[in-house]
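can u do me a favor
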């Protein structure tokens, strides 16, 4: 996959070159050893991804990564995403999920972000820190890889709980620093390079660790930290292109 810097430098040429690259990869990786839960395609393996070129990561058909395929299979196996009529709020919508949710007749879909122009067309403006957030509006709220960018993550989480209908559920993934035992933030760290070194990216304002679920519970969510990949063999983890041990943070609002 290509970095944001390269994408920006290529400008309008990027989508054309990216499509050519995807076509080439689809041909090169044709086969049936791995299966993408998001687009139902099979390949010899998934393409490498990231600066470290990690193997078996990127689907050349729908561009899903490990975490997308894991969550989609989680949706299919453990939630009512196909079986119930759901009003679904999707904050910072992942492109691969956006297109799938849009097509589902049972889903009344609301993709939102504070920067909607950075997301697929149809995404509308919502500031999750807004104080005028309505109550009890959505059956499902998906908010992945957002809180690490927000200084006042407590208000963001509180508003999401407020927006959720009683009995509703959500997925709230964040990157977990597995080398730490506690979440760390320090508002005096503002230098982009220092943030990158300490928090992982220059835009991040903290890293979370294993106490993340406790923070969600302190807001009022019921939280299940589901070690979903533990129910798969190593062969299946390769076949579906998951990260072993990647937990799903499933939250619910009490009825
Ligand atoms: Zn795919």
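np, heres the sequence
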């Amino acid at each position: 996959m290509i970095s944001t810097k390269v994408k920006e430098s290529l400008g309008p040429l990027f989508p054309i070159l990216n499509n050519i690259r995807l076509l080439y990869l689809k041909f090169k990786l044709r086969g049936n050893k791995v299966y993408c839960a998001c687009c139902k395609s099979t390949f010899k393996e998934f393409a490498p991804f990231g600066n470290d070129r990690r193997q078996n990561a990127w689907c050349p058909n729908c561009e899903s990564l490990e975490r997308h395929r894991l969550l989609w299979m989680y949706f299919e196996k453990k939630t009512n995403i196909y079986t119930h009529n759901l009003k679904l709020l999707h904050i910072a919508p992942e492109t691969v999920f956006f297109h799938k949710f849009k097509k589902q007749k049972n889903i009344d879909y609301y993709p939102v972000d504070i920067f909607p122009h950075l997301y697929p067309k149809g995404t509308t403006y919502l500031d999750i820190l807004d104080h005028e957030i309505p109550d009890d509006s959505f059956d499902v709220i998906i908010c992945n890889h957002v809180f690490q960018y927000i200084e006042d993550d407590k208000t963001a989480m509180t508003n999401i709980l407020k927006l959720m209908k009683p009995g509703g559920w959500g997925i709230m993934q964040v990157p977990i620093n597995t080398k730490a035992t506690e979440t760390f933030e320090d508002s005096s760290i503002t230098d982009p390079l220092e943030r990158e070194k300490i928090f992982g990216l220059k835009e991040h304002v903290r890293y979370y660790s294993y106490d993340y679920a406790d923070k969600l519970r302190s807001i009022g969510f019921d939280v299940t930290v589901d070690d979903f990949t533990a129910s798969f063999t190593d062969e299946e983890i390769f076949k579906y292109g998951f990260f072993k041990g990647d937990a799903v943070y499933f939250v619910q609002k009490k009825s």
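DSSP finds eight helices and 13 strands in the chain. hope that helps!!
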